[in-house]
Specification:
Mean pLDDT: 97
Order of helices and strands: HEHEEEHHEHEH
Bound molecules: magnesium ion
Strand content: 15-25%
Number of domains: 2
CATH superfamily of the largest domain: Thiamin diphosphate (ThDP)-binding fold, Pyr/PP domains
Helix content: 25-40%
Radius of gyration: 17 Å
Number of helices: 6
């Protein structure tokens, strides 16, 4: 909002978790961004369907995420959050949207590419130990990731 008021031309990128958007302050901010036509704001929702207590749709469903952001006045783009071309295209499109903020809903898989981490909620809030780290890197290198 400061950038808009002072014509500074700064774009703001805000990364949100899909569990995080259960919090009411997110929607207060979303309503504000829309009301003040903050087209310099680009929200990215990391939609991996996991949060610290389990699956987001079991804890407290935020779905449908895209419709909710649309209802709050956002331009919405759904993408595969692991596809670099889709990510770049979404950011390029967001820059062209005038008069409203943009929300990019990025469908992702937590721990993608590491067999013992993929879709495992246990990895939400902990770091791998030395051995797990080396095994994860080995798997990712083998897959060219
Ligand atoms: Mg999540």
């Amino acid at each position: 909002m400061s950038s808009k008021l002072n014509s500074r031309g700064i774009r703001v990128y805000c990364l949100l978790g899909d569990g995080e958007i259960q919090e009411g302050q997110v929607w207060e901010a979303a309503m504000t961004a829309s009301h003040y036509k903050l087209d310099n704001l680009c929200v990215i929702v990391d939609n991996n369907n996991l949060q610290i207590d389990g699956a987001v749709d079991k804890v407290m469903s935020p779905y449908p995420i895209d419709s909710k952001f649309k209802a709050f006045g956002f331009h919405v783009i759904n993408i595969d959050g692991h596809n670099i071309e889709e990510i770049i295209k979404a950011f390029d499109t967001a820059k062209t949207i005038k008069g409203k903020p943009t929300a990019i809903i990025a469908k992702t898989i937590k721990g993608k590419g590491v067999s013992f981490m993929e879709n495992q909620v246990a990895w939400h809030g902990k770091a791998p130990n030395e051995e797990e780290y080396h095994n994860a890197i080995k798997e990712l290198k083998k897959k060219g990731m």
